[in-house]
């Protein structure tokens, strides 16, 4: 399966691969079908399980082992174990091969259904019932006809399983000036890590859980600020946004900012796990000033300062030409 999504960037559309895990509490209980979804941009291909079985001597009960895949070593994780679902073992189980955050991983599931093209406005935030499997593992829910599809935060799963927080311990960058950053990301974990990293680097931070709320705030603040004072009095120096978010994605948010005459000089940094060489052009097409993958958390403050200073220098030249 190709990662290239044949969608016009900035339309707030995306595609998910629907898959399912069958579960059964005990032999006398009915089999339940649990429906989940993953952004197609993270899916490399779908393969049949070549016969991997869970072993009980693994350090992590979710880890099934590794398999060779076209010259790569693919670690395979049993998604049902992490979600604490008593999976009903079935024939022809499927491994979804993914690539995100600069790493590949395979996730064992019972089967796949189809690809759905959706609009981010169709994605709702999960309520307590849906998120009961594990805190923070469900980032959104979609209802298609009578079916509820839960969108999984696989980045959180990998971080939870490996203990890797993407937090740099050395070479901490600290800005000489105080800057203000606006963050839009639906992952609580990522927001917390971004906030901590930026605050330690001399930034003030305001957070939003989706692009829609972020855009409403920016648009309102811009409309309240006189044009000639906007660059001097506007609340924030940079926007750092995820791509995958309910209600409005980062591509659409970036496009709206860059097409707004009052906001177009506000630098935008796309910070997402789905930024790859193949998809980099999508961020460029909507005017993103920089794009970074989520393992590069420690680089965000320094890159942000460079973008801010670049815009401030440009505005100074425009206001005081030689």
UniProtKB/TrEMBL annotation:
Ranges of residues in domain Response regulatory: 180-309
Residue list for modification 4-aspartylphosphate: 242
Name of the protein in its database record: Response regulator
Phosphoprotein recorded as keyword: yes
Entries under PANTHER family matching the protein: CHEMOTAXIS PROTEIN CHEV
SMART domains (UniProt xref): CheW, REC
SUPFAM superfamilies on file: CheW-like, CheY-like
Gene3D superfamilies noted in UniProt: 3.40.50.2300, CheA-289, Domain 4, SH3 Domains
InterPro entries xrefs: Chemotax_regulator_CheV, CheW-like_dom_sf, CheW-lke_dom, CheY-like_superfamily, Sig_transdc_resp-reg_receiver
Lineage of source species: Bacteria, Pseudomonadati, Thermodesulfobacteriota, Desulfovibrionia, Desulfovibrionales
Keywords: Phosphoprotein
GO biological process assignments: chemotaxis; phosphorelay signal transduction system
Residues covered by the CheW-like domain: 13-163
Cross-referenced Pfam families: CheW, Response_reg
Coiled-coil portions: none
């Amino acid at each position: 399966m190709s990662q290239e999504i044949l969608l016009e960037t900035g339309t707030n559309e995306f595609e998910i691969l629907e898959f399912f895990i069958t579960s059964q509490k005990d032999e006398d209980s009915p089999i339940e079908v649990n429906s989940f979804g993953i952004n197609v941009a993270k899916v490399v291909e779908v393969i049949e399980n070549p016969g991997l079985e869970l072993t009980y001597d693994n350090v992590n009960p979710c880890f099934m082992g590794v398999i060779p895949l076209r010259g790569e070593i693919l670690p395979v994780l049993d998604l049902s174990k992490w979600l604490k679902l008593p999976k009903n073992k079935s024939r022809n189980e499927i491994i979804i091969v993914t690539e995100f955050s600069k790493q590949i991983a395979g996730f064992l599931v019972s089967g796949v259904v189809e690809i759905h093209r959706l609009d981010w406005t169709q994605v709702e935030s999960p309520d307590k019932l849906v998120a009961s499997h594990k805190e923070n593992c469900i980032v959104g829910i979609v209802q298609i006809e009578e079916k509820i599809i839960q969108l999984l935060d696989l980045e959180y799963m990998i971080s939870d399983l490996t203990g890797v927080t993407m937090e740099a311990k050395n070479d901490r960058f600290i800005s000489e000036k105080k800057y203000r950053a606006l963050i839009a990301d639906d992952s609580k974990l990522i927001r917390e890590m971004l906030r901590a990293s930026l605050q330690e680097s001399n930034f003030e931070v305001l957070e939003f859980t989706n692009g829609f709320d972020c855009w409403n705030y920016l648009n309102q603040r811009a409309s309240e600020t006189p044009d000639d004072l906007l660059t001097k009095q506007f609340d924030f120096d940079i926007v750092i946004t995820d791509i995958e978010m309910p209600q409005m994605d980062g591509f659409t948010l970036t496009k709206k900012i860059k097409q707004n005459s009052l906001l177009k000089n506000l630098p935008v940094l796309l910070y997402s796990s789905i930024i790859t060489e193949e998809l980099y052009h999508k961020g460029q097409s909507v005017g993103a000033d920089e794009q970074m993958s989520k393992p590069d958390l420690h680089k965000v403050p320094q890159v942000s300062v460079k973008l801010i200073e670049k815009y401030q220098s440009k505005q100074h030249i425009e206001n005081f030409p030689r």
